Amino acid sequence: xxxxxxxxxxxxxxxxxxxxxxxxxxxxxxxxxxxxxxxxxxxxxxxxxxxxxxxxxxxxxxxxxxxxxxxxxxxxxxxxxxxxxxxxxxxxxxxxxxxxxxxxxxxxxxxxxxxxxxxxxxxxxxxxxxxxxxxxxxxxxxxxxxxxxxx
Length: 151
Known about the structure:
Helix content is 68%, strand content 0%. The protein is mainly alpha-helical. It has two domains: 3-71, no CATH class; 82-145.
């Protein structure tokens, strides 16, 4: 789905006028954000999603995307490119996932054995391990879906 389609769907329930009013912007700008802008005859305007994607493209930094995901109550988990996973044999990939899970359990165990509680610093370590596990697992599932291990 293109960014303009995402925004159009997003504002449809609340309405363009309401969104424009709440953002302090004109309704015409919101309408333009909801139209294609990627061709010469398109009348749309680069919307905030396009601009955020461009910031990522220019900097390679996922910080703004991670922040946005957190604002929405979630977390950013990058997918590893299939070519990178293609070089990893199936057995090694499954071992990697088990190792990542083991690392997570080690951090949890260490946190609880320390004082029976998990403080904010320990929670950050748990989050880091969890993100690594999710990324490895997602890479594996994506590779399976792309038929990487179908030989």
